[in-house]
Design brief:
Largest sheet: 6 strands, parallel
Mean pLDDT: 93
Strand order of the largest sheet: 2-1-3-4-5-6
Distance between the termini: 54 Å
Shape: globular
Helix content: 25-40%
Oligomer: single chain
Strand content: 15-25%
Structural class: alpha/beta
Low-confidence stretches: none
């Protein structure tokens, strides 16, 4: 039985791609081993969203080559898609395929001969308009209680700081029938929660004239009666339409949690970023969402230190983010990414200034997160339990993405139970499981 080791860098979409490839190799008779062990094949699924991500991808590729010089080294993902010649020039790399043809990965590895060849086989090709969505069976991580199902690929937005449209190509979407079938399989495997993810999730179906919308994809997943929870990955605020909110209000299985990246709260910065809204529109969209789904949790991303961001711009951005009352803010210092318009600007913000702004933004995040948790304390809700931590507490998530801790001698893994939320604890809340006889 040949052995294969995987290393994945980057986003949840990359992780889902790797899980799907792992499933293909297992089906073909391979044994998956940890990346630190000797293997016949090493597969590195790379990331280039930042220069650091690309640098780390190179380091992991070199590590794979060193671990077993006789092994076949395969590089896939965004790095070879954006710089195929650069990856092919790394000594010891045998096969590169980019962000396409992953469904044929087993055959491509077999064709490479399963042994070292002279130079890398470069199979990367351009991702063109009207390319089909690559239908791969959803792979899952056995350690996770949630399953991530990729239903959308590519992005046409071209934000000034982002390389992803070049790495992932134009919009493509999974067929509705395929979404239903994949969710059925995941539920049959015992998964209670499925997360729909994509590179530009809210653009689902938009590559087709009069095509399906994200709400249709949600309906396709909710057709599966055994599904206990459905959650969405990140999407743009302007893409949260009335149909989506109606589904969330009517079907309790559809988690009341949205991750809507703000990125900046100053209009000048938003315009420079090429974001599809201004602060007033974002504020109105949030108000509309909360009006219809009052108990919703809205999380966000915030980039600080974008080129040209003055101290006044940053102060305005911070003030706006605070007013939005997010339940969680993921703060990122702007990372200069070669090949993007923002990287060519001369008005880069010094690193020490970016670090100071990160700290200030994180204080806003901590205050907002605590306020949201305090508002949740005392309520009754349901928790999907994930694992028992080293301190002996069971950890799990509510539908609106609050982490809850409880003490129990039972095995709660993958169980959904009613919980009375109590005080703040760690990064979430303590909770007590409500039994039927307690009512």
């Amino acid at each position: 039985m040949p052995k294969i080791a995987f290393y994945t860098l980057g986003c949840k979409v990359n992780q889902a791609d790797t899980a799907s490839m792992e499933k293909l190799f297992v089906k073909a008779g391979y044994s998956i081993v940890p990346f630190t062990q000797a293997a016949d094949v090493y597969l590195v699924n790379t990331c280039v969203v930042t220069n650091m991500g690309q640098s780390k991808s190179r380091k992991i590729i070199h590590r794979a080559v060193r671990q077993n010089p006789q092994a076949l080294v395969v590089v896939t993902g965004c790095y070879p898609q954006t710089a195929p010649e650069e990856v092919a020039a790394i000594e010891g790399v045998d096969l590169i395929i980019g962000t396409q043809d992953r469904k044929n990965i087993v055959e491509l590895v077999a064709k490479a001969g399963g042994h070292k060849v002279s130079g890398a086989a470069n199979l990367v090709h351009e991702l063109i308009k009207d390319s089909p969505f690559e239908e791969m069976t959803a792979g899952v991580d056995a350690k996770m209680t949630r399953a991530f199902l990729k239903i959308q690929e590519g992005c046409n937005q071209f934000c000034a700081y982002c390389i992803i449209p070049y790495a992932r190509g134009p919009l493509r979407s999974r067929a509705l029938t395929s979404i239903t079938a994949e969710v059925e399989q995941l539920v049959a495997q015992g998964y209670k929660e499925v997360v729909l993810i994509g590179i530009h999730l809210g653009a689902y179906g938009k590559e087709q004239a009069n095509g399906p919308k994200l709400a249709d994809a949600v309906k396709a997943a909710l057709k599966v009666q055994g599904l206990a929870r459905l959650r969405l990955g990140s999407l743009e605020s302007i893409e949260v339409d009335q149909d989506l909110l109606k589904l969330m209000a009517e079907d309790k299985r559809f988690c009341r949690h949205l991750h809507l990246p703000l990125q900046a709260g100053a209009d000048k910065t938003l315009q420079a970023m090429h974001r599809p809204y201004d602060s007033a529109k974002f504020k109105d969209l949030l108000a509309n969402i909360r009006r219809q789904i009052p108990d919703i949790s809205i999380t966000t991303d915030l980039i600080v230190g974008f080129p040209g961001e003055t101290q006044e711009d940053f102060a305005n951005s911070l003030q706006f983010a605070k007013a939005c009352q997010f339940s969680k803010i993921h703060v990122f210092p702007y990372s200069r990414r070669k090949g993007t318009p923002a990287a060519a600007r001369e008005d880069q913000v010094p690193e020490e200034v970016k670090n100071e702004r990160v700290q200030a933004a994180e204080q806003i995040d901590q205050a907002g997160h605590q306020a949201y948790l305090e508002a949740m304390a005392g309520r009754q809700t349901e928790v999907l339990w994930e694992t028992r931590n080293k301190a002996g507490f069971w950890e799990g998530l509510t539908g609106n993405y609050v982490r809850v801790y409880t003490e129990s001698q039972e095995n709660l893994t993958d169980q959904i139970t009613a919980v009375q939320l109590q005080n703040l604890f760690e990064d979430g809340l303590r909770g007590v499981i409500i039994r039927e006889h307690d009512n």
